Amino acid sequence: MKWTRLWLLLTIPAVAVLADPADYDPMLPFRLRSLNELDKTTPGARTEPVYKVHALRVWLGDVMIDSSRMPQPLEPEAAEAIAHIGSNAAPWLVKFLRESATIGFGENGIIPAFQILGPQARAAIPDLADLAVHQQNILRPANALAHGWEISGNAPMEALAAIGPEAFPAVFRILTNATSPGLRLAAINSIGCYGTNAAPALPELLKWVGDTNEMLAEASVSAVGEVGRHQPAALAAISNALDSPNLMVRESALNALERFGCEANPLLIRLMNNSNEGVRWVAFHSLACAAPTEMTNPIVLATAARHLCSTEGGWQPLGIELIRAASEQAAGVRPDPYMYHLINQPEWRLPDATNALWRLAPALYTDYFTKNVQ
Hints:
Leucine-rich Repeat Variant
């Protein structure tokens, strides 16, 4: 009888645990084994934060490997684990960064973890700033070194950006004191993440917009677009960058213009006369998307008429599309600048465009078209 009672005492709790299928976790033995193996191989792992039996570093490895986002985000349950652990995860995340000599773009979920924590990780700001400056071998990509480049401190900078505005002073100090172009580039990229909260950094960013190093110039133009919204000095700098001989810098400047809204409209209108065909088309797309009412602006119509009667390659197709967009806008239809209507056969649509120009602006038709096209 004594042994029978003992057997019942040992088995009833187990039956009770398994009675509810919702409480049964088939992965529990594997999780226990994973944590036990981690304890055996990693000194101090027993003090590492744990959520649902898994240690923090186990959750950091659970990233969405199929995601095209960089850094790849954590899986939902892993994100839940980081949120649950909260600020206790911050010193461990810094520790993992210190232990790594290659991490740069959020491998193992460290940067996504900082993004989840945000301001909760504020205690890590001094350590991250120190790591960015002094452990500059934290990212040494082969392609950068092949061109004589070393991007320094990228992962800690990403982490500082993820924490939010409270980390901005630390990043700004790094930018103003940086002596290596790699560290400067990492700081500029991070400052752009703060948006207008980093407005005090605008004068420093403007110093690098015209730098001969194309990577620094491109990153600076992009950051100026984020930080200097509604600032005339920022818009002027981006306008100058549009004339850069470097394609990447020009593309960055065109993208930055989108941050200025209607303030950039006059510049976009002027850019439709740019000698670079690609710049002209991007300016048209940006203006038609952001400010479709500008398609019937007299200056835009005059530009369209001038391009329409051009015999040089690359100008007339844009004139046709400008007239089409203006005609649609005048009819109360929002223009679709991404529809290329037989762009390789402009002569086929020339009668349509000239008729539309006559309806929209008869004086322009007379001044430009009849004088130049007989």
